[in-house]
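User: Hi! I'm working on a homework problem where we have to compare a predicted structure to a textbook description. Could you give me the structure for the chain below?
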Amino acid sequence: MTDTALAYAKVNISLDIVSKMADGYHNMRMVMQTVSLADEITIECLPGEGITVEAGLPFLPSDERNIAAKAAFAFFKHTGIGGYRTYIKTKKAIPVCAGLGGGSSDGACVLRMLDRMFETKLGRKALEGIGLTIGSDVPFCIDGGTSLAEGRGEVLANLPPMPKCYIVICKPPFSCSTPALFGRIKCEKIRARPDTDGILDALDKGDLGGVARRMYNVFEDVMTKGSRDIAEIKDTMYDQAALGAVMTGSGPSVIGLFDDEGSARGACEQLGQSYKECYLTEAVERLGYQ
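Assistant: Happy to help. Predicted structure tokens:
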């Protein structure tokens, strides 16, 4: 049996780090949003044994280190299903190491697909639990949409959908080390934080401008590489009438919110003169996984 589905990228409308927990992880508070930029995942299951991944890019692992493979292993372990040779093909569109959750989205998509293909009907909560064993962003990516994510990212609350908008994504040509950024964060010394409660109130009111004005990512204050690029990308977005701009995740990608498609296209074209990886996307609502 064979199935194909899309694995949608995620962006952070806000990212705050509240505290460091006893287990060494950080207690996060983030507003997360699914966007239309997506990888394409194809899974084929035949009689046999083993999991093979065609990763789509030569520098991505094709063995059990690949998050899509991890997801398949976790699914079969949880369900006890065996006797299948599983081939996963990934057609990548989401930039790698970009703060866009490409790997997490691929893993979540594999879990959803296998649940559907084998008619296990595990449901959203069970899949989120399996996903958390793979990565902190995977639970959000199971159903996506607009959510408040707390804890490691696994404590999720559905929010009203993002008002109609256009989201420009620009990735500068470098990557950021997530562990290094977390290592530089001192929760008690964070100088500026996103107005998360204000964002939630603006979403309740359908106020896109209110959301955009309150976006912030505390990782921006501890960047030691590429901070000039990030500032320049944000400035270009604002020059092209962005309502708000912020680095997403642990970077380095920057997103801008626009209420006008023409302005968003103009920003994408302007940024494209300096940066190869620029995308015009829209918000995607929850997938409706129960």
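For your comparison, note the following. The two ends are 24 Å apart (CA to CA). Residues 102-117 form the longest helix (16 residues). Good luck with the assignment!
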